[in-house]
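REQUEST FORM: STRUCTURE PREDICTION
Request ID: SP-0412
Submitted by: Lab K.M.
Chain count: 1
Length (residues): 112
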Amino acid sequence: MTVQPLPAFEPPYLMAVFTHVRTSDESGYPETLARMNELVAANPGLLGHESARTPGGLGITVAYFRDHDALTAWRRDLEHRAAMEQGRARWYESYTLHVATVERSHGFAHDG
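STATUS: Completed
RESULT:
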């Protein structure tokens, strides 16, 4: 399986960058993460999302949204809000969220 970044999207759009350090508590986390991935994918304004983790334990998730309404809908989703509460209480040692408007976007990939 070849890993590729998401393609460039037509600006302007929003990106939400969630960086975090996890606690050792895994109880319920994998199931909640799977459910959050299902929920955010159902948001019609989601362009895509991708995640990575460093060997040192820093996790980064970037989600791309077409507009503020789509991002606001995600932020206000009741299941997402409940997961955020669980995250602060159990799963995250620390986190930061950055939201920005993307003005320029391009990509590159070798053909074959």
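NOTES: The helical segments are 29-41, 68-76, 78-91.
Reviewed by: T.R.
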